[in-house]
Amino acid sequence: MSSRDISHQSQLLSSNGEVVATTESQDGQVYDWIKPESQVESGIAQPPPPLEGKVRQQTTGAQMETGPAPKSELESDETLLGPAGTVPMLRKKPALAHFRFSQTMSKTGPPDASGRIAVFASAPEKHWYASSAQYVRNYGGGGHFSCWNPVVETANDFSLLQVAIINQNGAYDANVARIDYRQSVEAGWIHYPARFGDKVPHLFTFYTTVGYEKYGDYVQSWNTDYKGWVQTDRTITPGIRFKPFNVSGGDQYKLWIEYQLFDGNWWLWVKDRWIGYYPASLFSAGHVATKTLSDHADQINFYGEIFDSNEVRGVTTTDMGSGKFPETGWQHSGFITNMVYQPTPSAESKAKARYDGSAGLFMDDTARYQIEAHFDNKDTWASFCWVGGPGSG
Asked: What gap in Å lies between CA 74 and CA 46, rounded to an integer?
């Protein structure tokens, strides 16, 4: 582990704010520490009130008990923290700054209501989904995500579990032809070696204002690759690692991830706090605000996704979730529990509604990946699903 002063390189690679210090973990994760107020000219927004209630750690019966929430790398090693009054930005390693698929098909939206997935004609890659969706006006939502470390076939493939908050036509412009008109804010965990240079899952955020069409400042981005995200927390930031992971047949862990539209910003809750936000104004530029994600969402998805780079011929062997099918159940399959959405603006009510994604269930190939829904479940897991599979492995 080492710590070093601000460098010209860190200034170049951290364009989201004024870097005042840099720290590096023993295995090469680099954090640039910035002044939070340097990210936005108008000043840092105030977060919503803390989410009510304690993260429920078990279902009916002690046989399905989960352990305490995993810790981020910065929570586990306080020597990596920067000066007081600064917040972290995880730096993309220079060797990975232009990894192979970053500008093409490394991220698409989930299947739409008809099961259609927007695909660019030149893309040779394949996305596999085990997805659910509820088509309802909402102002956010989230749930508790099981924490697995899936095996991916190659470094350019990924495996994730996530929530996506979507406005289906937010990017519509009569003067611009697009394959996909959706706008979204998304979050979850992802195992993507080509992005992070390691073989463990990371927290991720993603947003698009233009239907997954192109990357750029205030347009579309993973994490903090391009401008858009505003960081406010000291120890949890997009791209950070959490430990421990679930063990098949052993200890189980889960992480609370939820978005909320509050006072003109899409705030993200991770574990037990608000960690930062996307200004809702990102989505209204050039559009009628009330028809965009700056005003509301009209779809929420919970799902697993696999990206197959097609570097290896044949059907991918990348794991989704734990790499085991839903039928294997507790201590073996991936799961997402306590799935909810916010049906009214936060200023009007704090009440959450039970998620029911039955109208939007979609699986590319049930022989590879599956989702098993329990949206009407009555115990403390409430609305939940088992999700995962081994591909052709």
From this structure: 23
The residues, any chain, with a CB within 8 Å of residue 265's CB and separated by 6 or more, are 45, 230, 277, 278, 279, 280
Q: Which residues contact 81 (CB under 8 A, 6 or more apart)?
A: 23, 74, 234, 235
Which of these, 263, 109, 95, lies nearest to 178 by C-alpha position?
Answer: 109
Determine phi and psi for 328, rounding to 5 degrees: -75, -20
d(CA 165, CA 259): 8
Both tokens assigned to 94: 């220079």
pLDDT in tens, 56-110: 444 444 457 788 899 999 999 999 999 999 999 999 866 554 444 444 446 788 8
pTM value?
A: 0.91
Return the closest-CA partner of residue 229 out of 255, 206, 261: 206
Task: Give residue 316's pLDDT band: very low, low, confident or very high (50, 70, 90).
Answer: very high
- Specify the range with the lowest mean pLDDT, choosing from 18-27, 151-160, 171-180, 275-284: 171-180
C-alpha torsion angle, residues 37, 282, 186, 352 (rounded to 10):
90
3-state secondary structure the chain: CEEECCCHHHHHHCCCCCEEEEEECCCCCEEEEECHHHCCCCCCCCCCCCCCCCCCCECCCHHHECCCCCEEHHHHCHHHCCCCCCEEEECCCHHHCCCCCCCCCCCCCCCCCCCCCCCCCCCCCEEEEEEEEECCCECEEEEEEECCCCCCCCCCCEEEEEEEEEECCCCCECCECCCCCCEEEEEEEEECHHHHCCCCCEEEEEEECCCCCCCECCCEEECCCCECEEECCCCCCCCCEEECCCCCCCCCCEEEEEEEEECCEEEEEECCEEEEEEEHHHHCCCCCHHHCCCCCECEEEEEEEEEECCCCCCCCCCCECCCCCHHHCCCCCEEEEEEEECCCCCCCCCCCEECCCHHHCEECCCCCCEEEEECCCCCCCCCEEEEEECCCC
Q: Quick check: 279 and 265 in contact, CB under 8 A?
A: yes
